Amino acid sequence: MTSEITLFVNPTAGRGRGAHAAQPAASALRAAGFSVRTVIGEDSADALRRARDAVDAGTRALIAVGGDGMVSLALQAVARTPTPLGVVAVGTGNDFARSLGLPVRDPAAAGKAIADALDAGRTREVDLGRVGKTWFGTVLASGFDSRVNDRGNRMRWPAGRLKYDLAMIAELAAFRPVPYRITLDGNEVREVDATLVAVGNGPSYGGGMKICARADMHDGLFDVTVVGDCSRTTLLKVFPKVYKGTHLDHPEVTVVRAAKVELAAPDVTGYADGEQLGGLPLTAECVPRAVRVLGPGGP
Q1: Using a CB cutoff of 8 Å and minimum separation of 24, what contacts does 247-254 make?
Q2: Phi and psi of 219, rounded to 5°?
Q3: By CB neighbour count within 10 A (0-12 exposed, 13-18 middle, 19+ buried), where does 115 fall?
Q4: 113 contacts 296 by C-beta, under 8 angstroms
Q5: Which domains does the chain show, CATH number per domain?
Q6: Where is each DAGKc domain found (predicted)?
Q7: Which of 128, 135, 139, 129 is nearest to 52 (CA)?
Q8: Is pLDDT above 60 for 82?
Q9: What predicted TM-score, i.e. pTM, was given to this entire model?
């Protein structure tokens, strides 16, 4: 392993914050005596190839600078390797960083926290979800929320979060509950009409929506949140509660825990860490201690 640290940068994260964040993060790491190399890909595939090359070459750490999309790419490179992951969270959602209590939108503080953790040899072993060969850190979403993503991704205007707010309004008018077949740990089967099903390794998605509020990224299990057959009125009443996690107390919401979850439903797309996985059926496995994360709170 070399002494060099690799900054893995998304220049477009958070409407340009990614590019600006790299400099103070790098400065904090260099001030602590570390050699820093920056990697910026031409596109996602090129960026991932470069990140994997850095890991294969023995970089001391891979530091994702951006939002949850950049963390997702970084996870594909470092999962199940000795290379630790650092996060400089400057995206829109930053749910992976929030879930682990890492600094958010403060690149200098994030850089210092990473440097301190490297000096102390302090890492946390964190569980990840895996669908096929794709790793995810926070939540696998399906149902109403994934259809909002589908619609928002098709919209060319407006930009940013407003696009998804408008997509939510449009999808709400058309949405009907979906018949799901949920298989837990290969043997328990539940068939239910559901508004959405979320498989949480971490508690939140979408920039702090605590859809799986009690999920623990260190227990080897997913929290599977099932929102049942809700009317539009009920959904509108329950939805604001997701930011505090109090929606879990609603009678139409159930939570089960499992290490392996298969979701099957017609015409539903799955998204993990905000990235499209493809249509259901999909099978997710929780892989204990799959990645080492740098930052405060380690042993």
Answers
A1: 247/211, 248/213, 248/214, 252/195, 252/227, 252/228, 253/225, 253/226, 253/227, 253/228, 254/225, 254/226, 254/228
A2: -105, 0
A3: buried
A4: yes
A5: 4-121 (3.40.50.10330), 139-290 (2.60.200.40)
A6: 1-134
A7: 135
A8: yes
A9: 0.92
